[in-house]
Amino acid sequence: MKKRLLNAALVLLASASLNAQNISQEKLVITGTKFTYPLLEKWAKEFEAIHPEVDVKVVSKLQANETADLKIVSHERKKEEIPQAEKSVVLGKYAILPVANINNPALKNISEKGLKEKEYKELFFEDESEQFEEKKKKSKYEVNLYTRESRSCAPIAFASHFGYEQSAIKGKGISGEDKYLIYAVKKDTAGVTYNNLGFIYDLSTRKTVEGIAVLPLDFNNNGKLDADEKIFDNLDKVIERLENEKISSVPVENINVVYNSDNNNKNIKLFLSWVLDQGQKYNHDYGFLNFDTETLSKQKEILTLNK
User: Fold this and answer.
1) Is 126 helix (H, G, I), strand (E, B) or coil?
2) Torsion of CA 298, 278, 269, 307, to 10 degrees
3) Is residue 54 within 8 Å of 47, Cβ to Cβ?
4) Disulfide check for 92: which of 110, 231, 241, 255 has CB 3.0–4.6 Å away?
5) What ranges make up the beta strands (E) of 70-137?
6) How much is the pLDDT for 137?
7) Distance CA 94, CA 74 (A)
């Protein structure tokens, strides 16, 4: 009797092990823009909780013989850069703000008046049409600028918003991820850079991370910071303002997810549908913006129509 019970238990254990192996065989591999990974990993975790048969992997580097099912591209591409077989939907938005070391001497003056859009562009971008002496006269603030060394989504989006190429951004090139721009500024009292909200703010306290401050922007260019422009001390205030108003001096870009129309992984649409239906509630937690209802409905429609 005991032997039969033991055999039955072993059969059940083997069956459970086999089922677990079968569950783990369904994979969905995501790669792309690294600063979106904290949000992607949250989406993956919550999705797997209701779909344990799918293993969602967010990876920065693909293994040998591994291919990505989904790729995050967080800047607008030119038509010729988009493969014919590629399909895409938009999963959210992100914003970029200028930041400085908390002890930067230029911060006091800017904090009183705010940066007008023209001053903002002059601070960060080279105008190739101007002569050296003209450029020198425009150097209103003595700062050390930092930017990404390699071509990547955030600097492309930042420059494109103001009508420039990434190569026009002034400053010392920093290798690695976008978060290293923040590290560089924290070490340099004259440091200034740009970054997305998720790296500028502490996601727990919703305040700017220690050692930096946002360079406040004069949204209406009237030469002073009005009461409704004093929002940069709190992440949720910034998100609310940017979701409800288009501000010309603040780059806001889409988080695009792309995939090949020939990919037969059924979990692609299952995951993307879940993100658009259920995952949006996590965007704010990680410093990302939500769509308005109309745009969200449009993305759901696009996903349905994509073959």
Assistant:
1) coil
2) -10
3) yes
4) 255
5) 70-73, 86-101
6) 53
7) 9
